């Protein structure tokens, strides 16, 4: 299970928008400067998450990625201090590393300074190395630390630039997202009303009266959703209403709204959410509705009888909620892209505009949380989100 520390690090890295993109010119300039000042042939900026090391800028080699298990920097970057090794073959931390043994490279001299965000989260290193044994002077070591801090400064500038560029565009497009989020409650209203209308004796038939009551309840939730989502759009998604919410009843109401979709596909939805969260009930309902509906529809489109599991657990930072399915899953290289507006997973046969997951991310981030996609134990996708506790979200 992914840890709260891993989630925090992933979140910090994602905000910088540098993994999987061409190297930024300013970052390339800093690695060139590091190599020159320290008189080494190779310098790299490494970003390290819980699975991979990503080289986002380099001199002396082409930037690439490797597993965290193969990374030399992954061994030391969380210590948040400079590391200098004259001959990695003689250091027990690195002697068996494939970058030292010749399997991937023949590193001898190694030095790195950690990259630490302003919030104190270590996310990688500024690393220099050589294929010969050598030393680093005290002055060069200080220069490496200074350049590592400048790398973080550049990353912060990139993050701010990206956020400013996205805010106006997201606000302008939010009206389209509202209609998408309301589709399933509207289907529930239509289905229940149709059932009531077809009843031969609507007044005296108990099942008809029950159907009308359910339709009225769904309509009320839809009206509240319209009001709150439009309020959310007007304030730019910055301050959703916050109150204690029991997840169990909230998930139950969402499943009731999705009754037509669940019944038509033969889906099974299991729920294990015995926790209370702090947030906006309408927005979190829209979030869960999107995720559960997607899990059912994409699994059915893959030709299997959908099995969906909604579960939650308390972690140190808040409550972690996961919606898992037995569908086709999402390829690792697409898991970040599908959260972008108007983007859908490659090969998807499910109709839609690709705005649901964008809405989900907007809602979760407005609550101070984080949402991502991993593999599910059921064989498909696990879309999880972290909702901070009341104190962290304030």
Describe this structure in words.
It holds the Pfam family HATPase_c. It catalyses: ATP + protein L-histidine = ADP + protein N-phospho-L-histidine. By secondary structure, this protein is α+β, with helices and mostly antiparallel strands. The chain has ten helices and 13 strands. The protein has helices at residues 4-16, 25-38, 98-101, 138-198, 206-234, 247-257, 259-265, 281-301, 356-366, 390-393, and strands at residues 42-48, 52-59, 65-67, 83-85, 109-116, 122-130, 243-246, 268-272, 276-279, 307-315, 318-325, 370-375, 381-388. The longest helix is centred in the middle third of the chain and has 61 residues, at 138-198. The chain starts with a helix and ends with a helix.
What is the name of the CATH architecture of the largest domain?
2-Layer Sandwich
CATH class of the largest domain: Alpha Beta
Low-confidence stretches: 349-354
Strand content: 15-25%
Number of strands: 13
What distance lies between the first and last C-alpha atoms, to the nearest angstrom? 27 Å
Helix content: 40-55%
Q: Which descriptor suits the 3D outline?
A: elongated
Q: Please, how many domains?
A: 2
Q: With helices defined by DSSP (H or I, 4 residues minimum), what is the helix count? A: 10
Radius of gyration: 25 Å
In round numbers, the mean pLDDT is 82
The spatial strand order of the largest sheet comes to 3-2-1-6-5-4
- N-to-C SSE string, H for helix and E for strand: HHEEEEHEEHHEHHEEHEEHEEH
The CATH topology of the largest domain: Heat Shock Protein 90
Largest sheet, strands/sense/barrel: 6 strands, antiparallel
Within CATH, the superfamily of the largest domain carries the name: Histidine kinase-like ATPase, C-terminal domain
Find the structural class using helix and strand composition: alpha+beta
